[in-house]
Amino acid sequence: MPVSAAASAREILTRLHDVMAGRTAPQAKLNAVVGIVAEAMNSEVCSIYLLREGVLELYATRGLDQAAVHVTKLALGEGLVGMIAAEVEVLNLDEAASHPDFAYKPETGEDRYHSFAGVPIIRRERSVGVLAVQHFETRKYADVEIEALQTVAMVLSELIANAGLIDVAGTGNNRVQSTASARLSGQKLVDGMGAGFAVFHQPRITIEHTVAEDTDAERRRVYAAFDKMREQIDRITREAEFGVAGEHDEVIATYKMFAYDEGWTRRINEAIDSGLTAEAAIERVQQRTRQRMRQIDDPLLADRMHDLEDLSNRLLRIVSGQMGTAAQLGLRQDTILIARNLGPAELLEYDKRRLKGVILEEGSLTAHVTIVARAMGVPVLGRVRDIRREIAEGDLLMLDVTEGTVFVRPSTAMEESFEGRLAVRQKRRAAYAALRDVPPVTKDGHRLTLMINAGLRDDVAALDIMGADGIGLFRTEFQFLVSATLPQRERQQRLYKEVLDAAGDRPVVFRTVDIGGDKALPYLKEGDADEENPAMGWRALRLALERGGLMKAQARALLEAAAGRTLNVMFPMVSEPWEFDTAKALFEAQREWMTKRGKRPPAAIRYGAMLEVPGLAEQLDILLPRLQFLSVGTNDLTQFLFAADRANPKLADRYDWLSPTILRFLARVVGPCRDAGVDLAVCGEMGGRPLEAMALIGLGIERLSITPAAIGPVKAMVRSLDRGTLSIHLKALLADPPRDMRGALTAWAIANGVELA
Fold first, then answer.
1. Domains of the chain, residue spans
2. In angstroms, what is the C-alpha Rg of the chain?
3. Known active-site residue 46
4. What CATH number does domain 5-170 carry, 3.30.450.40, 3.40.50.970, 3.40.50.720, 3.40.1790.10?
5. Residue 618: CB partners within 8 Å, gap ≥ 6?
6. Which of 166, 235, 278, 341 is the most buried (most CB within 10 A)?
7. pLDDT tens for residues 660-717?
8. Is 201 one of the annotated active-site residues of the chain?
9. In 683-722, which residue ranges form alpha helices assigned H by DSSP?
10. For the CA atoms of 586, 591, 596, 601, what is the dihedral angle to 10 degrees?
11. Candidates 46, 201, 673, 683; catalytic one
């Protein structure tokens, strides 16, 4: 083989160019292709399988028995070839027969060969075939050979498409046109409701020519496209209006960094060197990105890969001259935008007055576009599968992210239901707004403390809007998650000071950085091996104590930001009292260092811990005398108590927060905290749901830290509640738990006039 992937591919593409330009029949062209590839790669076998009528058919081969052509067929997922097509993945094996998915087809005579490598032939992001090579020897193919195969597969996609050999059913264009109403479900990313007509973010760009006539000319086209794209990004981000500063500013800065990434430019140039056109080179690098994304378990790193996908789409549209995204064409009416995924800059291009919502086929809570959409006030529903199969351009959509659903082509009954919920939502919001300055006091006179969870500068504005008592949980890791590099101490200090200034005399509880595990940072390597159970792995305080420099920088930033004020600092995922002691000692050492150098320290420091690890409850008698406050993190606590990964969709809703297991555990914590004079709070999704919050209050918990949107509903519930009566009833229920605790509590609330919204 040649010494580089570019040279390998160029050698093959030069010969393929003449084949593609010839006037021979498609079968003859494919017969020539397998001969060229086999010879160039010094392989005894090269075969092409095409997706026809839903199955993979051996269409051409050099090395296998010719009698098997058009006879050997494999279902998607069947055998090595079927698995490559189904998973859209590369396979490289030194001994094919030892693979568990190997399926022997005797008519091919392939039992003589040992090594096997195959790559998907991709058209419009779907597998339409497989290109495979085999060899007598037991060896894996080199990376440069696999790279060459993937480049050839891209050219093959054009050849078979032009020859009419692509199975329409395999391209994803077999949407059944329908006028029937439908209801689709997805993941709640940005809460809200909106109605409008479906508009697809971008039309598919089909690459018509893959083999370059003049590589220098193609390179000049790419450079010009890069210049134009960067000008667009600079203009969009310069003109974006959010009203207030926030973490989305850092998201945009990170996105711009990708746009100027030299590594990305180099990879596209290397693809052009292999003989591809500018469009094909961009698509080739984009395919590699997609394949990497499918292999990435870390959602944060995957979100950054989505930014590269967004930029690739933009660059491809520019270089191909197909500039028309829905944003650039302009929205003509109220719109629900549909996309596989979006980058933050692309969302910013849309007219906020007409953009009523976004539906994503992918998306995640930590994606950059989610953070920007939240700042824009645009509701977003993610993880809606097969959007293009179910929704057509111009369909009327009614999006209710609160319910996690979207009505497609709604019936009259659906419209009435949606409009009714929207009216109720608006009425409730008005009623909750009227409660802003009303204290959360129960009917029998108990004043509760309702605080908000935050992580962005923008979130602090909710203190005034919702009339909250303070910030009971400020997630400091958000600044780390949206940054391309480790935030410097000065940058951290500036954020913390802005939050404290905005909160005024209301308390802010800063949780020290909770990264690692399932919140791994690409610029901060926690280890060489992936963790099988990241939620229970090397994360939060465990990681911070090991990386003393990281925690010292954050401690200094917090102490400097709180100069002359009270600093509330809380350590996450404390498992043993000594971990709390070590973290506190680190902060105290930094305070002493500041004092010796004449720097103004905080007037007071209140130290707290998160109760998330159930085992810590067995040592509360040791820990509580050292604390000023304790906060229960119900999200992690629940999954640890039930040994149920909350990231697993099969288990996410299986275990109820109102289970006697959870309530009894919390009841055992309330008494010791009260006796020790330690403030006890619950910060997590459990406290933000009126029925669950009612149960927590019945247990004796008087402090809740919840999402800003939950303040109004929970406050309304509190003011309709008699805590004393509830406490007696709940104690009886926990002594002899009913099979349906949720049902029993709901029935009691209804019977006693408790407002559950």
1. 5-170, 177-203+332-434, 204-323, 438-525+533-751
2. 30
3. no
4. 3.30.450.40
5. none
6. 278
7. 999 999 999 999 999 999 999 998 778 988 999 999 999 999 999 988 878 989 999 9
8. no
9. 690-699, 711-719
10. 170
11. 683
